[in-house]
Amino acid sequence: MTSREEKYLELKRAHAAGRMDRRSFLRRAGALGIVPLVIPAHMRPAFANAEELVVVNWGGPAEAAYMNAFGEPFTEETGIPVFIDGTGPSVGRIRAMVEANAVVWDVCDSGVAGAINLGPGGYLEPIDYSIVSAERCRPEFVWEHGIGNYLFCNVLTYNTEAFEEAPTTWADMWDVEKFPGGRTMRRNVLGGVMESALQAAGVAKEDVYDTLGTADGRALAFEKLEELKPHTLYWSSASESQQLYRTGEVTIGNIWHTRSRGLRNDSNGQFTWTWNQGQLTAGAWLVPRGNPAGAEAAMRFIAVAQEPENQVLLLEVMGNGPINPEAAALVPEELRADDPGQPENYDLMLADSEAFYSEYYDEVQERYLELIS
Amino acid sequence: MMRSQTAPYWWLVVPALAALGVFYLYPVAQVLWLSVTEPAPGLGNYTTLYESQTVRNVIWRTTWISLVTTVFTVTLGYVVAYALAQVGRRTLVIMLFAVLMTLWLSVLIRAFSWVVLLQTNGLVNQALIAIGLIDRPLPLLRNELGVIIGMVHFMLPLAILPMYANMSGLDRRVMQAADVLGARSWQAFWWVWFPMSRPGIIVATLLVFVFSLGFFVTPAILGGGRVMMLSEYISFQFQETLRWGQATMLASTLLLGVLAVLAVATRFIDMKRLFGARG
């Protein structure tokens, strides 16, 4: 046995006997170059007696990426193993789980719609802001029952080979003469749909939600949407949005920047996007009420996921924008153009208004479906 | 006497009935229950059937597309089934294999294959332009036409198999008799063969129509977001907007609609005999 291992065992015994608190145990073990991956149950604080923490996201590359960026650091800190379930925590599934008293998820990677629709119904644990830091998230995405996880945006994405000059505004998307070809936008109104329509009609970014707050403003947005409808296909899954560009059915449209980035990378730049007038939204961490690992463990996980370094990892792999404002400065030079959180990009965009969607989501979604289908 | 002989066999049915009760009837009852209790008790959800233009549009479109799909599927399927009933053993095996093979392919793969074929620069449009039939690509995709093409393709085996089963059981000698009695071939077909094949047509029609009403994947992919059918609308209300009362009301309406179709059908035909429960 090396002396390093001997010293570590000594630390462990001291910790087990209660002569040393957990924090100094971890620090001194760390100084030896040893990070205890799984801390025995009796050494854990109460919240960490959970056997595992189940984090649900939307699968694909996100499973490994979340494990790497958030899961492993969380296990190192708490000793609780993390399981990533990539089956998609849709709002309906969360509600069904809570109502059936059969919650098997601890932390869900949902969105603005989840926080708005599930929070008031009592399906979620409130975010404990003594553990999770409200300052480590963009203020637009801090809610009572959820908190922003990463930034993503609905951006003007186009085929560079289809036009002589690059489109830069939503008004260009509405200009079918100058920018011919198919259009696309999300089938869910939460996707910068009405916001882009109003900006195409000449409403300034700052006035969009004030305008949407009036019946006339909403009518104007729907009028613009109706105008573009003959040219528009409405995507529901993100992979579908990419396919529409690849097949040439669409030359310009409004899709998630993470997907625009994928399109650009796969096509050597044939497709690209502009941040100008983009619609900022966020993935949101939600904790279903009565989650098996306990609310505290879930909050600790969210706190770990707020570490700026961890968030930058996700930007690198998936293009998800760090939502912790501290992270912007840590983003390596070559990734900054793809980071919605860089001030020069962030300031061009408009963030989803929780106030507007809490009040009008049902109404405008219904009207939007009526318009398109 | 009969009773004592058959009674023990009923016990063999019990596990299947129990499974149906737990995994099918109970959830269906829950759906019905939710539709009259959520968000408030009463028939509030059902008033949307009259009040909401969107809901009426979706129901109308679903019915229309299902009807068109059924007509095309049963007509095309009848031709195939008729051919199957005429050909020799070896050809029959090959043809049946071809029909069944489409059943084994995932519905997703089939829908995406149609995207490849029907898109603006797809094979079908390229071929039509190459032979000079059209100048510019036809819009075959992301509209009702695309949805109907995809659905007919999916439903064909479901129509062919019951009609073939019916035709293969028919007595060919009556056709010879018609021939001997001087009927022309179209007369023999129309007056003799067609009436005998009607039970198969009815089963195929019911099967395809009912199946079409609840279809989800193909319209979602081939419709480009603009051809929203009932099940997709229900799914949206369930998953995204959490209007479960609306979703379950529409699901219940769909179920009642299907039951009504079957009820009407039973007035005209003997269902038990159609499905082989009575010889």
Automatic annotation (TrEMBL), chain A:
> What SUPFAM superfamilies does the database record attribute to this sequence?
Periplasmic binding protein-like II
Among Gene3D superfamilies, the record links this protein to: Periplasmic binding protein-like II
One Pfam annotation, family name? SBP_bac_8
The protein's UniProt keywords, in alphabetical order, are: Periplasm, Signal, Transport
Q: Mention one GO biological process in which this protein takes part, according to its record.
A: thiamine transport
The record's similarity note reads: Belongs to the bacterial solute-binding protein 1 family.
Q: What is the official name of this protein in its record?
A: Spermidine/putrescine transport system substrate-binding protein
UniProtKB/TrEMBL annotation, chain B:
**PROSITE patterns attached here?**
ABC_TM1
Q: Where in the cell is it found?
A: Cell membrane
Q: Which UniProt keywords are given for this protein, alphabetically ordered?
A: Cell membrane, Membrane, Transmembrane, Transmembrane helix, Transport
Q: Which residues cross the membrane?
A: 7-26, 64-85, 92-117, 145-165, 201-224, 244-265
Superkingdom, natural source:
Bacteria
Give the record's membrane topology: Multi-pass membrane protein
Write down the InterPro entries for this protein, in alphabetical order: MetI-like, MetI-like_sf
Output one GO BP term: transmembrane transport
Residue stretches making up the ABC transmembrane type-1 domain: 59-265
Just give the chief location class.
Answer: membrane
Q: Which GO terms describe its cellular component?
A: plasma membrane
Q: Which family does it belong to?
A: Belongs to the binding-protein-dependent transport system permease family. CysTW subfamily.
- Its recorded name reads Polyamine ABC transporter permease
Q: What is the lineage of its organism?
A: Bacteria, Pseudomonadati, Pseudomonadota, Alphaproteobacteria, Rhodobacterales
